[in-house]
Specification:
Blueprint: H1 42-56, H2 59-63, H3 71-83, H4 99-111, H5 115-137, H6 142-156, H7 166-187, H8 190-206, H9 211-222, H10 226-240, H11 242-251, H12 253-267, H13 269-272, H14 286-293, H15 305-328, H16 336-351, H17 354-358, H18 362-387, H19 394-409, H20 415-425, E1 433-437, E2 440-444, H21 447-463, E3 469-474, H22 486-490, E4 495-496, H23 515-521, E5 524-528, H24 547-555, E6 556-562, E7 567-572
Helix pairs in contact: 1-6, 3-4, 5-6, 5-7, 5-18, 6-18, 6-19, 7-8, 7-9, 7-16, 8-9, 8-10, 9-16, 11-12, 15-16, 15-18, 16-18, 18-19, 23-24
């Protein structure tokens, strides 16, 4: 057995034939991540099938689960616009890289522009993450790898369903870039370094904000062989970023910098950030508070949801820091090869921590924890075996310990959601509520909202023509806290009439944003009071410019109201009707929010 404490960094260039001496539990084969070749075996097949089965149990329910009307909506609409030749950051607001939109545009061209096609792509991204972590932790045996994959599935499949978000694709590719970089330490194969760099660069075309995380992780993997690895890693990374280079040329550096850096970091942050750490006595996130108003069944003892978020926040940071530190300090590590896995992958987990800092709700905590928490299984195994070398039950104990920790700290945001969708998949629970038009469908959790949209569809159908300009937003356009982008998906023949298809506080509602001008040129408005009760401890509660509401009053007449003004349909009319959506009280009570001059 190799002892990591007796080896230097240069010893990480071990010949793969020497890796057979590693104690890998029940396997006599060298794992792929440590330089071994892919091979078939009965145990390996059963391990993969077990993990795949666990992952797929809730999938039928997730395909028909409630969608996030903004986030999942724009991952449907934006790629469609790219197909039509529209340019992100020029023709519509987009806060991330172009890679995911380009890939999804091709995906929809092949498989159709449907919710199911989008969710299938999202599922594939989830599997990329789950089996990436399986591959990394395979260096500690199959039990550890399956356990890590289960933890990853609980963390990545529960926050936002099967939405094909850019974050998931970037994390999945980043993990596989680490796999090939760690593998290259042993094989010393230029091809492995090239693949690592290529995947890492392409991941950054999805989420440029992961640049530090991916760069640090690959640098950690390559450091012992930096002279050999630098050129292929960097060169291939530049090639992988081709979608970004093309986007910079087509859109221009100014709009890209504005959309990818200035808007999310400086303009949007004040209206989206949440307290760090999360409040102990309440839930800070509006969407989370809404979900906990009518939560799924959970009959087991548990902390209050706000307490879970509070303690989970600290646990996420502690584990993200502990994994690379334990590896770096040789705490319990048993071989230089395994240590290399934990250093590189642990640095990736450390690098994504800013996601949890900016908005520590359950979604962002899970997105960060999905990298580090499965790796903790390997750390626990090494610690147990260091103290009891012949302890063959260490993998089971490690997996059980982490699953128990997750059960205590965050059961509502992992186990409860997994159980909910599994029950829906099995027919044990009714489906959410469906809004459908000409084969395009979207699922909502609220029957009142669903009824309003289902009543809206034939009305808008009867008065609109293909090519008409439609804008979807909040009833009070001085508070663009969230909007139902899914309506654009249901009416693909109508032209989105604004740059702000995705509406965010501090961007669309800002004075001089251009939204008022967009409204003045539109044909129809669908404005909703669904989000009128949005309350968060940030600038989203502040009313911004009233010019957008005035543009509605000056150019549009209120044609129809649905479900006690929950959804409002405005039609362009000469001279305007004199009222805006902000003047029409909705089903859900609005909150008293300060005017800008009241904050001075």
């Amino acid at each position: 057995m190799l002892d990591a404490t007796d080896h230097s960094e240069d010893d990480l260039n071990t010949d793969p034939t020497d890796l057979g001496r590693l104690d890998l539990g029940e396997s006599e084969h060298v794992p792929f991540v440590l330089g071994g070749r892919p091979h078939r075996s009965l145990k390996g097949t059963l391990s993969l099938l077990a993990l795949f089965a666990f992952t797929m149990l809730p999938v039928r329910g997730l395909y028909r689960g409630t969608g996030s009307s903004l986030e999942e909506g724009f991952m449907l609409v934006f790629p469609r616009l790219v197909q039509q030749g529209k340019v992100p950051n020029v023709d519509f607001l987009h806060l991330y890289g172009p890679g995911s939109l380009e890939v999804l545009a091709g995906w929809y061209w092949v498989f159709g522009y449907t919710l199911e096609a989008q969710r299938t792509f999202g599922l594939l991204q989830h599997l990329l993450i789950i089996f990436g972590l399986y591959t990394l932790t395979r260096a500690w045996g199959r039990i550890a790898a399956v356990g890590a994959g289960i933890v990853a599935a609980l963390l990545i499949m529960t926050p936002i369903g099967l939405s094909a978000l850019a974050w998931h694709g970037a994390v999945g590719m980043a993990l596989w870039a680490v796999v090939f970089a760690v593998r290259a330490r042993t094989t010393a194969a230029r091809s492995d370094w090239l693949i690592a760099g290529l995947i890492g660069g392409f991941a950054l075309s999805f989420r440029p904000d992961m640049a530090i995380a991916i760069s640090v992780a690959l640098a950690g993997a390559a450091w012992a062989q930096r002279r050999r690895a630098a050129a292929p890693l960097i060169g291939a990374g530049i090639v992988g970023l081709i979608p970004m280079w093309i986007h910079l040329i087509v859109a221009g550096p100014g709009p890209v910098i504005e959309g990818v850096i200035i808007d999310p970091v400086f303009h949007l942050r004040a209206g989206r950030e949440l307290p760090t750490p999360p409040s102990f006595d309440r839930i800070d996130g509006a969407l989370q508070a809404i979900a906990e108003g009518d939560p799924p069944w959970w009959g087991l003892p548990a902390l209050a949801p706000n307490h879970q978020l509070f303690f989970w926040f600290f646990a996420v940071f502690a584990i993200a820091i502990a994994v690379p530190v334990a590896a770096w300090r040789n705490v319990g590590t048993r071989s230089p090869q395994q240590r290399g896995v934990l250093i590189a992958a642990g640095l990736l987990g450390l690098g994504v921590l800013p996601q949890a800092l900016q908005r520590p709700d359950s979604t962002h905590l899970a997105w960060v924890a999905v990298v580090s928490w499965p790796l903790l299984i390997a750390v626990i195994i090494d610690l147990v075996r260091t103290r009891t070398p012949q302890q063959h039950g260490a993998p089971i104990a490690a997996v059980a310990s982490l699953l128990a920790l997750l059960f205590v700290v965050a059961p509502f945001y992992t186990y409860r959601t997994y159980l909910l969708h599994t029950r829906v998949a099995a027919g044990n629970l009714p489906l959410p509520f469906l809004v459908e038009r000409e084969g395009r469908r979207f699922w909502f959790s609220d029957p009142i909202v669903t009824n309003a949209f289902n009543d809206l569809i034939p009305e808008l159908d009867s008065i609109s023509d293909p090519g008409d300009r439609l804008i979807v937003g909040t009833a009070d356009l001085s508070r663009t806290v969230y909007n139902d982008v899914s309506i654009y998906f249901l009416f693909p023949e109508l032209e989105p009439g604004t740059f702000f298809i995705e509406m965010d506080p501090g961007l669309a509602d800002a004075e001089g944003s251009g939204l008022a001008e967009d409204i003045a040129e539109a044909d129809f408005l669908v404005l909703t009071n669904v989000w009128a009760g949005w309350v968060e401890p940030n600038e989203s509660v502040t009313r911004q410019s009233q010019e957008h509401n005035q543009a509605v009053a000056d150019n549009f007449c209120l044609r129809s109201q649905f479900e006690d003004n929950l959804v409002l349909l405005f039609e362009r009319c000469e001279g305007g009707g004199g009222i805006s959506g902000a003047d029409v009280a909705g089903t859900y009570p609005t909150i008293p929010v300060p005017e800008p001059d009241e904050l001075d």
